[in-house]
Amino acid sequence: MEKSLYQKNAIVTGGALGIGRETSILLAKKGAHVIVSDINLTEGNKVVTEIESFGGSAEFIKCDVTCEQEIVTLVETFKFRNKRLDIMVNNAGIANKPTFMHKVTTEVWNRLILMDLTSVFWCQKYATKLMLGDRIGGSIINVASIAGLGASPSLGPYCVAKAGVIELTTTGALEVARFGVRINAVCPGWTETAILDVAGERGKDAMEKNIPMGRLGKPREVANLIGFLASEESSFITGSVYRVDGGTRS
Ligand SMILES: NC(=O)c1ccc[n+]([C@@H]2O[C@H](COP(=O)([O-])OP(=O)(O)OC[C@H]3O[C@@H](n4cnc5c(N)ncnc54)[C@H](O)[C@@H]3O)[C@@H](O)[C@H]2O)c1
């Protein structure tokens, strides 16, 4: 694989499993030094070991994205080493258990919005500030969802949070476009990871049947798009929102 991210520094939140894991590995294969960040130490450290096994460079830093101060500390890691933060992938996220909107409790609502929207606001905010300060730009990639682009009954809080991530991306991107900081969003369709467990086997079958390509996505297929947006190959792209969903339109 071409080392298009040689000497770049990257952070991936939720990097221990699923899409974040594949993204961490892909960015490292492209030559970046990757901070794999997550609340899951065991799986996060396994990703680092895997990256090191092919000669890549990575480290694990624990960060719970529901805590603003932990995000500040994570994002500023490279600053304290006198290095740049080039790539920030805001990927950590959870889904709500399927529930109609009128039955969603305030507790579930607040948890989802904190985890899937406010955390991305904090990650984008502090990464942008740092990249602006360095005056050499950078690439921020927010992982939203096709659920943020249209209605998905029973996934109300998740849809609202992901729609918010899309607006956070497009608005934030235009504000800093002139300064070389690019902000884009990827919207995966249903992808084979643990997050789909909330839907159960029947729910997963229904999702799969609804995908024109006839199968769930693979985490690697989402990571490929993130890798492109992280690299200079996408140097004229900002404020954009990309679907990676096997053709799903509902
Ligand atoms: N899999 C899908 O079908 C799908 C579809 C659309 C969007 N997405 C989005 O992709 C992103 C990654 O999800 P995934 O499918 O890989 O799920 P996953 O459950 O496999 O991975 C999520 C990761 O986030 C970590 N995490 C959970 N809470 C955290 C916290 N408080 N702080 C830090 N890390 C935390 C988990 O430990 C895990 O490593 C999420 O934002 C999700 O909404 C997934």
TrEMBL record:
Q: Name one GO molecular function term.
A: oxidoreductase activity, acting on the CH-OH group of donors, NAD or NADP as acceptor
Top-rank lineage group of the source organism: Bacteria
Q: Matching InterPro entries, A to Z? A: NAD(P)-bd_dom_sf, Sc_DH/Rdtase_CS, SDR_fam
**SUPFAM superfamilies attached to this UniProt entry:** NAD(P)-binding Rossmann-fold domains (SSF51735)
Specify one Pfam family: adh_short_C2
Matches recorded under NCBIfam families: PRK07231.1
Q: What protein family is recorded? A: Belongs to the short-chain dehydrogenases/reductases (SDR) family.
Q: What is this protein called?
A: SDR family oxidoreductase
Q: Which organism is it from?
A: Leptospira soteropolitanensis
